[in-house]
Specification:
Blueprint lengths: L3 H8 L3 E4 L5 E2 L5 E2 L12 H4 L3 E7 L2 E8 L2 E9 L6 E6 L11 E9 L1 E6 L9 H4 L2 H10 L4 H7 L4 H8 L3 H6 L9 H8 L1
Parallel strand pairs: 1-8, 2-8, 3-9
Antiparallel strand pairs: 4-5, 5-6, 6-9, 7-8
Length: 193
Amino acid sequence: MESDASRCSRDGVTGTIDLSGPAADLTGRLHHLPCCIKQTGPCSVSDYFKPKPTGVVIDGVVVEEAAFRGRKLDGATIPIPDGYCGFVLEKNSNENISSGETNHWRARSKFRSITYWNHDSLPSRDDEFMRLFHWFSVANALHKSVLTDGLESSTNVDESIFDKQVGLDKSSKSNVKKSIEDYPAEIVENSLL
């Protein structure tokens, strides 16, 4: 019998995420700490964890400070970009084995901002956590609708590259207008490398 780990690495893991149910709003109360807390269950966090503003701004990031178990933390609250929402998910114990799903998750809460904390450095735009937010602009660019006009202008390649490879001089170049489709494929491929 093969183990779950080997099956997952070969076949991947499938499942569902249910975002339709009621979810508490944790905006302004969600923190990403630079440590692992091995505790499951309720805790009166607000009695002990009390962030406060410092008045310091670095790279446009407003710095906050707090302490956790006597260790100073510096952090920043980051808004989730427009059009997106963060969710805290909980794994359902009622797994639907008959349909082949191995995981079923449901939203417990949602958030529009998150505060991340550093232990040994001030927050900045170069932090690993902050760089995660660059993927939103990458995702937007990849999934953005492209108009035909925009597509044509992005495929125009600098003709001087082709001129050098096919040996056009200034006098013959002025009378010749060529598009990328007029050149042999090997010239196009070599010039784009």
